[in-house]
């Protein structure tokens, strides 16, 4: 039995991106994007046809079945979550984060990806909340502000003093 390998997932992602950009995915375009020979693309797409992920015809190129589209979108979403996490949260340079995210997207468990995504969503929500509660400091780093906010069902006191931000509390909302 053939299973979808990491390399095949990359093919599905490239096919998906080419269709999004050009309206179609030709074997030549896939080979150029993947830096492989057209014969390699032909062999791999034949395997993807057998798995029910793609269909192909010489005149129409390669296109995704519903299953192939679902897999490609899943890989793409995982890549974007990891790339964002690496660049925005960890501060990894973009050229490195893209390579690392591409490697990690195939290895990490979906529960881990979901946890990373949830962490980023909480961080974004918290930043928005801090901005709304404290408002703009208008460049006055010495000014002190504080406010109370609810995030994830918990009360938090947010204090901005002498240019430093502190979160206090986290008591459950009753």
Automatic annotation (TrEMBL):
Tree of life domain: Bacteria
Keywords: DNA-binding, Transcription, Transcription regulation
PROSITE patterns xref list: HTH_DTXR
SUPFAM superfamilies listed in its UniProt record: Iron-dependent repressor protein, dimerization domain, Winged helix' DNA-binding domain
Keyword Transcription: yes
Record bears the keyword DNA-binding: yes
Pfam family of the protein (one): Fe_dep_repress
Gene Ontology MF: a single term: transition metal ion binding
UniProt domain HTH dtxR-type: residue ranges: 1-65
Family: Belongs to the DtxR/MntR family.
Name this polypeptide is given: Transcriptional regulator MntR
Originating species: Anaerotignum neopropionicum
Top-level taxonomy: Bacteria, Bacillati, Bacillota, Clostridia, Lachnospirales
């Amino acid at each position: 039995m053939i299973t979808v390998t990491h390399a095949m997932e990359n093919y599905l992602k490239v096919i998906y991106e080419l269709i999004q950009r050009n309206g179609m995915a030709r074997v030549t375009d896939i080979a150029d994007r993947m830096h492989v020979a057209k014969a390699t693309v032909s062999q791999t797409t034949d395997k993807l046809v057998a798995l029910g992920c793609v269909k192909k015809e010489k005149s129409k190129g390669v296109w995704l079945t519903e299953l192939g589209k679902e897999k490609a979108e899943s890989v793409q979403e995982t890549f974007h979550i990891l790339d964002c996490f690496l660049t925005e949260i960890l501060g990894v340079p973009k050229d490195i984060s893209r390579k690392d995210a591409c490697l990690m997207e195939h290895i990490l468990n979906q529960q881990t990806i979901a946890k990373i995504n949830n962490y980023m969503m909480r961080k974004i929500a918290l930043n928005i909340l801090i901005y709304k509660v404290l408002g703009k400091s208008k460049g006055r780093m010495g000014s002190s502000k504080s406010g109370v906010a609810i995030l994830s069902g918990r009360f938090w006191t947010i204090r901005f003093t002498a240019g430093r931000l502190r979160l206090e509390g986290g008591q459950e909302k009753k």
